[in-house]
Each structure stands twice: as structure tokens, then as C-alpha cells.
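FORM 7B - TANDEM STRUCTURE REPORT

SECTION 1: FIRST PROTEIN
SEQUENCE AND C-ALPHA CELLS:
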Amino acid sequence: MNKKALKVLEFYKIKDIIKKFTATSAAKELIDELEPYNSLYEVKEHLEETNEALSLLMKKGSPPFEGAYDVREGISMAEKGFTLMPLQLLRIANIERCARRFKDYIHNREDEDNLRVLEDVCVGITPVKQLEEAILKAIVSEEEIADRASITLFNIRKTLKDKTTSVKDKVNSMVRSYSNYLQENIYTIRGDRYVIPVKSEYKGQVPGLVHDQSSSGATLFIEPMGLVNLNNEIKELMLKEKAEINRILGELSERVYDNIDFVKNNANIVYELDFIFAKAKYASEIGAICPLVNEDGIIDIVQGRHPLIDPLKVVSMDVYLGREFTSLVVTGPNTGGKTVTLKTIGLLELMAMSGILIPARENSTVSFFKEVFADIGDEQSIEQSLSTFSSHMTNIVKIMEKADIDSLVLFDELGAGTDPTEGAALAVSILENLRKRDTKILATTHYSELKAYALRTEGVENASVEFDVETLRPTYRLLIGVPGKSNAFEISKRLGLPDYVIDDARSGIASENLRFEDLIQKLQEKSIRAEENSRKSEILKAEAERYKEKYEKKLNGLNNTRERALVEGKREAKKIIVEAKEEADTILKNIREMERLGYSSDARAKLENERKKLKEKLDKAYENEFENEAEGSSLTKVEEGQEVYIPSLNMKGIILSKPDNRGEVQIQAGIMKINVKLKDLRSNKNFKEDAKIKKIKKREVKLNLKQVDSSIDLRGMDAEEAIYSVDKYLDDACVGGLGSVIIIHGKGTGVLRNAINDMLKKHQHVKTYRLGNYGEGGSGVTVVELK
């Protein structure tokens, strides 16, 4: 992409704003390097990643970038085997923690929205939690190593603390002893050694080592001989502490080196995510949307806004190009918004092609262009002795050399700065030449000749910026399909120019031109209204189709889920029946064995009768299950290609052949081709839902009731809340079949324990209770045996 267009269309200003939303300087550099992508695939992928990030921002709030820093320098040093400083290690740990949390942020969500691109980005994250925790455990802050970083460091600091206390006590004693010779009754530190301020005339009265003197020379800072050994010991401990800290930092740096590939990769992914979410935060700031993208040169921006204009003042515009026409000629008065229109279209195109969402309405469409050219603004150059016209023509020459079918060209005041007749003829020739190349063009002009050119040339359309004659102000609305009306006479009249002057001016203009201007005014409202209604209808139709497709997918998903749940429920019910039948047969077998050992024949007859009744009841239930499973419309005839349901396989299939002489048809079921009897097929699966679902839910409740914890923790509750919680818990434990449970109430003042014991005395489920033994929690718990 040519740099001139990026600069003229103020793309760099957009990047500067996006950089404010980043957390790391590495992401800022990625934004500095951002330019329109070179393929349609890249454009769509990067727009999609930004849109996914915006969706996450809306649903889950800010991403976990806390503590994210640019650690490229630290990683580079670790890669070369250097020992890192505490600040560098701490920042590496923070960015690794950020990467790990981001993986959870992406994957742990309740919605089912597809985040394909972001998930692909995050799939490369490899958490190094052990390294992260080791650094955070050892380093408290940017300049402080934790005591718990190693046992050796802990012992050194403990000894150092004891020695420091001893030396302070001793130096305080010496201050009192030598108080008559001291400048002040205090002690101080010079070079990590404790000293006392002695008056220079009494230096012989305090034996020791002189470390410093005051600026006036009246005070000497002497280390008394009685402190020398203690100070030496403290100095040795401080050196040991420093050596141990260096050892710890070296060890942590080595662990970073051992995981350098993971550390570097995770950090790069965090930088990329920071870059993506910066674009998403900017999109949220300006109310942007993800546009549709094509490579057919079609632009259809609905209610597009220039992102650098105050949102309270900006006027949205509808612009379309590339279907019925490939060139758009915009006319209108000065300060009417023509240049802003060009810059808006050009900037929105550049933003979209760079993966940045655009401020417009949903369903807006942009096109992928290999090049965007812009000749906008006064580029007069004194240094190069170029006039305005010459500078514009120099730029236009370069555009004419490179523009093709994959280019978008923006011309502001094409042909201006020279003789109007020649300038208009030149402008028409330039536009016609580019139109024949099928280049997409937006051009502004004041020349009437270009209006006529647009009216008579296929593939070229007029447009204008609206002007309110009543208020003498532009409305900044773009009107496509209608050339601009000059309004010079109306404006002059409202500003006070005499009527006779205006009449003389009118008489100097050909009647055809006046009629042409009047025709423009009459066509304006009708054309605009019809065009707006047509485009709104297309947009609403597209939205309706999208919503229809979305909800059809959801409906199909719900139906499939319902069918699977019902089938699984039936299978579970059959399994229960089979198990119950087997158990009943086992019980009856045992009864017959007992009967053989001494029951009378009458008792035997009664047992056999009861066994038959039980067997009949189970067989009936079993048959009902099969009958229910086969429910659905039976088939008497089928057609090739018809979709059917196979109850025996719990699958759907497609009919491949008509029934043969044995009544079998061939069916494609998944990857298999099978023969199935016609009578065993169903047209659909209509289950009797209510009773079965209730059975399944009832069984699920019973299963869940058995999953009761063996203890309950009441710590932090007041007596009333604790009694309510224990009562409910004992009910659940009893239903769940627990024999004994533990109630944790803590020791404390004993108020909570007494309240619970009073409640247990009268509880219907409690058989006995006692305080915990040694190893069970002691008096902090109560062990309850249930009935």
C-alpha cells in the first residue's frame, strides 16, 4: 500500500489512538507496523479476530492483562545465559501468569459462540506454572527477595536480625557511657557500620576506629572497639546474604533458560493478544462493527462515520459503489462535506483492510483493494516551484501509471487550479481512462461538464452534498443519484443581493441550463427517497435471512439434544428393568433353596405364585419399553432418498433402494450400508415424553442424593445460620445413606459448639454424638452417628 494514501487519509492518526489501549510496548510496535493486508483471507481473519475480541469484551469485561510488560530484553538476556535482575524475573513471571489466565479467559465461558481465531491464537500457550510460582514465591517486589526464597537465606536473615539487635543494644549502652564526649546522644551508620558522633577534642577518650567526620570538622564518627567484632559479623552476614541472593537469582534465571522456548512463545502470544484487544477496545469506543468483505470492488457503507470527527457532531453517510456504477462524481458547494466524504470512504476502507472494525451500521460492505490512491488537499510546493495544479498533476501521473481493476482512486477537485475549460476536459479524460480499466473512482468537482459526463456515461453516477438554502448551511448529507445544484442565486438573494442584479445574471445564462438546474431540484427528493427505501429493504431482508438461519440451527440443535436425552433415558430404564429381573430371579432361587431345607408344600405353592406374578409384572414392563421405543409412524412404502429412523440402531438413515421380495430395503446409515426390513423402520421418533422424562429426572435426583459430603464446615456462621445448615445437611446425609458425619464448628469461645450440641440432642436422625478425638479435630469438631 502506498504511504501517501495512508498519510493523506490520516490512517496514522487512527493507529496512534489504538496505541493508547495497549498494555505493552511490544503491542504498540505491532500497531506501528500495521498496514492494510495483502490478501482477502488475511483481511477476513484479522477482522474476525477483532470482532471476537469485541464480543468477549462485551460479555466478560476486560481481559487479564494485569502485570503484562514488554519482557523481550529480559528473555533475550536469559537466552544468552545472563543472570536476570529481580525486576526482570518478576515481569517474566507476570507475563507467564497473564498467558495462563488468558487461556482460561478464552475457554471458560458459558456462551456457545465460536471464537475460532482467538482459540487458534491461544492454542499455542503452554503454561509454565511451576516456574511462575517459583519466581513469585522468591521475589516479593522489584527490589526485594523473600525470606522464604531459600532456607539458607532465611537463616542468614534471622541471624542478621539477632546480631543487629545485639549491636543496637550495645551501641546504646556506649552512647550512655560516653555521653559527655558526644556531640549528640545518638548513634548512626557509616559504611554499614554502627558509629557514634564524638566531639573532635575528645577523640582520645573514645578508643576506636574513625570512619568519617562532619563538614565542619567538629565531629568525628568513631566505631568503638567494643563494636568492631559485632560490626564485622554483621558485615560478613550481609555479604553472605548478597551471595545467597545472587545464587537464587542465578538459579531462577537458569530455570527461565530451561523453559526459554515456552516463555518466549507465551510472551509473543500475549503481545499479539494485547494488539488484538487494543483494536477491540477502540472499536467499542467508536461503536464500530465488523463489515462484510468482498473482492469484487463493491462498496456499500450504511451510516458510515468519520472516526476522527467528534461523535456528537459527525453526520453519518450512505455510500455505495461497484454494482450499477464504478465511478461516483460528487458535486456541491465549498465546505459542504465533499472532501470529508472522500476521506471517510478511503479511511474506512484502509481500516477494514487492516483488521480494524469500522464505525458504520451492521451489514455494511467493503471491498479488498490491492491499492488505494488519494489525491486530496492543496499540495503546492514552494521548494520544488510547483503550483497547486502542477503538484496535483504530478500525483495524478503516478496514479495513472499504477491504477487498475484492483484499485480505489480518490480525487479531490479533479482538474482544479487551471483554466476551467481545459481543466474540465482534462478531468473527463482522466476519469474516462480509469473507468475503462474498471478502476473504482470517487471524485469531487465544481465543473458542470463532469455532471453532464456522469449523466451520459454508463457506469458513472452523480452525487451531491446537500445544502439548506433556508439556513445557508450545508447538511453534510451525501445524496447519490442527483448532481449538485449550485444554489448561487438563492444564496445571493438571501444574503441581500438586489433582485435586479440576480435577474440580470439569470438572463446571461442559457434557458437550457436553468431548466437543467430546476430539473435537478425536482428529481432530488424522489430519487433519494426511492433509493433509500430500496436499500433499507435489502438490509432488512438480509437481517431477516440471517436471523432465520441462526434460529433454525438452534432449533435443530435442541431437537437433536432432546432426542438423544430420551433415547438414553429409555436405554437406562431397560437396563434397570433387566437388573431388577435378574435380582428377583436370584432372590427366588435363594427362597427355593431355603424352601428345600424345610418349608411346607403350601408355603412353596404360595411363593411360586408370587414369583409368577413378579415375573409377569417385569415382563410387561420390559415389553412396554420396547413398544414405547418403537413408537412413531410405521412405514408401508418408502421412496429413494427418503430419511427414516431405525429404532434398533437408534440412528437416522437414507433409503437407497425400494423394498425387495423379502420386504427389505437398503439404507445408508452413517458410513454403513445395511439391509433393514420395512416394518422395522419409522418415519420419525415421537416419544411420549412427560412420563419418561420424569422417570429419568427422578432417577437423577436419587443418584445425586447419594453424593453427600461426609462433613460440613460451619466456621464463620452465627448460631442460627449454623443450626439451619446442620438440619438440612443431616436430612441429606440420612437420605444419602451415610452412617456417620463430622460437623466442623471450630474451638473459639464454644458458643457455636454448644448451640449445635443442644440441637443434636433433639434431632430425629441422630443416634449418638461426641466431640472429636485426637487426629479427628479434637474439640473443634463433633462426630455424629446417624440412625
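SECTION 2: SECOND PROTEIN
SEQUENCE AND C-ALPHA CELLS:
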Amino acid sequence: MTTGSLKSDATTSDPGRPGSGSALRSSIRWARQRPFAVGYAAALLAVGLATGVISGPARSIRLLLGTGYESVIDHGHWWSPLTSVFFVDDGAELLLALAGTLIVLGFAERLMGTCRTAIAFLVTAILGATIGIGAQFLGVAGGEMWSRGVSELWAMDPFTPIFGSALAASFFAGPLWRRRIRVLGVSTVLVLVLYSGQPSDLYRLLAVLVGLGVGWFGVGWRSRPIRPLSAWRRSSDHESRTLLAAIVGMVAVGPVITIFSGARYGPLAPLGLLLTQDVPTAGDVVDRCLLGDITRQCVQELSLERIGGAGPVLVSLLPLLTLVVAAFGLARGRRFAAWLAITLNAGLALLAAWYYGLLPISGQPYVWQWQSGRYWEVTLILGVSVLVPLLVAVVILANLRHFPVATRTGQWHRFLLVTVGSFTGLAAAYVGLGWLFRTHFRPGVTLFDLIADVPERFIPVGFLRLERVSFLPNDALATTLYDSVGAVFWIIVFVGAIVALRSVAVGPSVDASARLRTLLSTFGGGSLGFMATWRGNSLWFSASGRTAIAYRVVNGIAITTSEPIGPRSEAAEAVAFFARMCDDHGWVSVFYSLHDSWKSVFVAMGWPTMQVGEETLLRPSTWSTTGRKWQDIRSSINRADRAGVRAEWTTYRSLSLTAAAQIAEISEQWVQEKELPELGFTLGGLDELHDPEVRLMLAVDSAERVHAVTSWLPTRRDGEIIGWTLDFMRRRPDSINGVMEFLIAQTAERMQERPEVEFLSLSVAPLAPVSGPRQGGIAAGLLDYLGRTLEPVYGFRSLLLFKNKFQPEFAPVFMSFPDPVALPEIGLALARAYLPSLSVREVVTLARGLSQ
């Protein structure tokens, strides 16, 4: 579709519509809706200007109004938990606090109202700091190392109540924002605690927990949703990928927090020492620290010595940057990125556990006294160092089904070969050259010392925080060897990950996608042909390049997404060659979602066929809503008019950020209401809306609130659009009755103005009953059973009845296959295609249902 046609179709802007006034009026209206957030921001700004924007408040003000252990316990400043949230340390923090107040706190106020926001703000500010100070008091009394180390620090932090209020507001948000607020909010404060570890970080974490309690009580008993535990786990694939990518990204950039932190007390703070310049000499470290007298200062100096030079810095930073690369891949559904993140996190966790737990058992000198109560904090630090990356790896592994874009086998093998080969070669070079220059280390090294030291050359410094240093390089030559092998390895991994993620998306290449779209524009491919462009499909082209077939391989069954796309003159030949290709790969070919016009091709081949559904078609040229049968449709249109709801024909790229966020929220809420995951295969989701050729019909009211959304896939012939197919359908639970009927009717009326549009397809209701008996034995029985089982959740039969309201034409849709013996496998493959996250146990349950 050309840009010109998109512009001509776009809904014209109405100057009288809300939001089209001046920026000043919009700002005033925005501020009036968030008086508490605006007032708090004004107070922060005024206090910041009065106390000094650059250097921050004077020491006397910090001592009087800042909070902390000494402030409350030693000096009795009981008011300080509340007063401390009105001050910041410097100008940069002031700007960040103002942005957080207006965006985060303003969003919270918009969700739960001014009164509840004020209550949540005060309660979380006071209790977050008070509970934290109480914990510090107990820690100091018990001699706990962290509490004693931070007892003299004073906190001045407006983010404590901001985070707490945001988590309280999550109870008033829809499923999409509820999940985002909680996952991102809790993850952020945990990362701050782990990598910074200052008292203010602890207060924020406690404020978040208090905020969850405030929100839980604030929604009231009657309006509090009662959901099973599984409801928290359900999410759309798109949203799950977004949240997991955000978590991996935050954990990866966590060490940067320690770089800008005034003090580094978190369990994972050693990574923040990467840019420290105070590096002791190797001789001093060895003389004072290799005698078995391990102290906190000695441990820090050993860590500093390990990161002296560019090589160790790269060894510590590049795994984190590789995780950032993996996070970008996770957001795009790449399975390679998921396995990369799993491997890196699990590897770091296992290596940390081995170094911190097994070395003393293997006879090496103890790093600390395991049985001494004095060092229980060290045990906790080591446990956190192991559990944090391990937990991230386990979470991604448990959600692996959300990353369907697999890597091409050749590229995956190439990455593994390069990674393993480079590690082996660099390790061998380190041992060989190290033995050759063994006199350049202090103390002198043996061959066993070098071999035992190999893993440490490749491991980030933070995970070797308490591990004994056996030897160190004594000159520039040995230092280069000591530092470079790990850096070179991680550079190779980092670059290799970027190359793999840029070039290994499963399915068609960019060239193949362009060729497919050219064929679709020329030959159409039927009303379901545009589904061939969806991510997750593989593409096969005939020798002439004029016919394309999109397919997915599930359990050895190659299922086509739609009918072949190309000229009918080579249809039989293309089908035969595709079937031969599948046979060469050991796959059973199944042509799915075919129309009657293709049946003669498969009858001539001797292949059996089975009807799998009925497509419902509307003809815009004869569209009319007159008569008794159309009463429901007319009522829906009139109801929308009375409610001030209008229909907008647009594209996803033309949406405002607000409208796009509302559509995502509507979709997520729909997914969470289901007891099973989102369906796939011939049913598109949120990701498929982004295609610039897909059109959206939205139901929007006068307040710019999106009530419902439908998406329409184009069908072309000789470059001209001749039809649209309904795909994505979502509505708000509290939207007006009949909003979907309204949108479809409005789409049909719009298409009446275009004589070139021959049809509107309401698509095929998958797994819904067909007219007459369905032939196909076990496969048919499985499809019928699957449809009956999933009906209470997905409503296939209800969807078919809904489409009947439009008095459509019915066009049977069938599938064809070469061998009836493979029907059981075909049935299960179709079930897995629609429900890719279906577990083995669920498959067995479905199979058992056939015998009942």
C-alpha cells in the first residue's frame, strides 16, 4: 500500500476535538488532573532552589531534616522520615526527581485519585524509612556488618514515596499496566539494593512492599479481584517478551549504578569498582593478603588489583554488554537471545557457586571462616551473587515458549564453534605462554597453577570478589598475557552475538520477504494469504520464483499457513515440488486453510481432504442493514452514536502513543481473562498490528478512549486491494454493548465507497463446528474435541454465531494431506500450532479425551 493511499484513508483531524487546543490549555488541564504530583514537584523545586541546586543542602540541614540510623536513633529526629523526601543531593538528582514526580507520581494519581495518592505517599514515605531504620537498629545491635557500615549515612530521597505510591496505584490499573508497574518497579529497587546498597535503597524496597499493602487495602474488599495464582503467570507473548527483556537489561546495566553511587555497599557492588583509580601495587597486595589474614580491606584491594588495566575491565563489562544485546533480542522474540541470556546467567551463577563453595572443600586455603558468625554476611553476599543470575536464567527458561523465532542451524553451530574454539585456543595460549614466562609472575608459578588459574581469566571480577589470588604478573609482558586472554574471548562473544542476532531470524530473509510481498501484490494468495508474512513462517519458492508457500514445521509435520501464492498455471507443479521437498526433509506435508478452488489440484494427486472450517464473507457492493434480520446491527450503530463513539480507520504507525498504549492494555486484559495462553498460527496478536499494510478500525469516544480495536489484512490482485480480512479483535470489558458489530458494520460501509473491493472476510473461526459431518477420523475427532475443550475459554462457537449476525456467505475451508496414516500426528501438530506453549501433559490429556 502506498503512502498516498494511507494518507487519503486517514481520519481527518477535527479542530474541535479534545486535545487539539493550545499547549497551554492542555498543560493546565493535565495539571488540574494531578494536583498532588504538581504540588510535590513545585515543593521539590522550591526547596532545591533555596538550598542550592549544585551542591545540595548544607550539612546542618542534612543533619536536621535528613533521615537515617544516626538521625532517628542517636539524635531523636523522629520527623526525618517525612522531611527527608523533600530534599535532593544535587541538581542532577533534582531534575530526575522532578521527572519522576510528574511522570510516575502523576500517573499514580491519575489511576487512584488525589486523596489515595496523598495517603499512599505519606504512608510509604514514613513506613519505608521507619521500618528500614528499625532493621538497621537490630543489625547494629547484633553486630551485622552492613548495618554498622552504613550507620553514619543520611538519606534524602524523594523516590521512596514515589516508588511506593506507584506500586499502590498498580491495584487500580488494568492488567497490562498492573504487571508492568509491579515487575519493573520491584526489579528496579532490587537492582538498586544489590548494586548500590545504601540505606535509601533499602527504604525504597520497603516502601514498595508497603505500597503493595496500601494498594491492596485501598481498592476495597468488594472491588478487589480474586484471581488464581495462575492468573499472574498469564500474559501475551508480546508483553512477556517486553518484561523479560526489561529485567535482563536492568540486571545487565546494574553495575553502572555503583559507578555513580556515592557509596557502594550492595552485595554486587564490586562491579562498580571497575573505574576506580586507586589500584595498589602487586607487591603490596601479595605481601599482605596471601598470608591467610583475610580482612575486608584486603579483599577490596585484591578486587582492585584484579581490575587493574583495560583487560579485566573488558572481562567484567563485556558479559554485561552481551546481556544487553540479549535483552534487545528477547524483545524481538529471538530464541537465540533467550539461550544466550540463560547461558550467561547460569554460567555466572555456577562459576560463582563453584568458586565460593567448592574450592575450600578441594583443599584450597579458606577465604573466610565458614563457622564463624562474624562472616555470615559474606555467606549472604555469596549466596546473592549466585542466586541473582541463576534466578534470571530460570525465569527465562520457564518462559522459553514466548521466544519462537529460532536460529538457523548453520548460524547457531557457527557461533558455538567460534565460541568454544576461541576459549580453547586462548586457554591453551595462556597456559603455554605462561609456562614459558613463568619467572615473570610473583610468586613463581607451576604448570598446575596456570591450569587452575585459567577459569579466572574469563570470569568477571565481581564473582571473584573473595577468591584467593595465588599469583600476579610482575612486569608488562606477563600483565599483557594475564589480562588479554579473557578480554579477547569476550570481544569475540560480544561481536558474535550481535552478528547472530542480526542475521539469524527464522523464516524468510529480507529478500524472501520482499519477494513474497511482490507475489501477494500480484496474485493475492486468497483472503488468508497475507498471513504468510507473519513472523514464524518459513518460505518455499518454486524454481520459477513465481510461487511461494508459507509453512511451519511442528513435530515433523509441515503445515502451510495458507494456500500457495502464485499463478494458477503452475499450481499443481508447485504443490508437487513442495511435497517432494518436505519428503526429502522427512516431513509430512499438510496443506491447510485451502478454498474450494484448490480442491481439484489435490483430487488429481489422489490426496484426501478434510473440511476444517467455514469462512464468512461479506460483499460490500450489496451491503445493507435494512430488514428485521439486521436489527442487532442497527441497534449497535445507534448505541455507539448515542455514546459519542466514532470509528477510525487508521494504521498502527499513525496512532498516538496514548492510543497505542490503550490497545496494548486492551489486548493484555483480554489475554489475562483466559485460562490458557494466546493462540497463534492463523490468529494474529499485537505484534502483527505493526505491519504498515495492516489497517485498524478503532472505536474511540470523545475523550479519546479506545473502546475496541479490529485489524484487517489486505488481499491484492495486480497491485490493487480487492478485499480485507478480519484478524485481531479486542474490546474493553466495560465498553458499550455491540461495539464489535459497530466496527464491522462501519468497515463494510466504508468499503461500499470503493467499488474495487470485492469482499470483506470475517475470517475462519478455528476449531468451530462445520456444517455437516466432518470427515477425517482421528484428526477430525481431535479438532472437534479441542474445539469443545477450549470453547469455554476462547469461544470459537460463540465467534461463529457472532459472525452469523451479518448474514454472511459461507465458504468451506479444508486441508489436504498425502497419507491418512499420519492423521493422529497431524491432529496433534495442529493443536500445537494453535497452542505452541501446550505442554506434553496437556497433549496427553487431549489425546485421552478422544477415547471418552
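SECTION 3: OBSERVATIONS ON SECOND PROTEIN
The longest strand covers residues 706-717.
The mean pLDDT is 76.

SECTION 4: SIGNATURE
Preparer initials: ____
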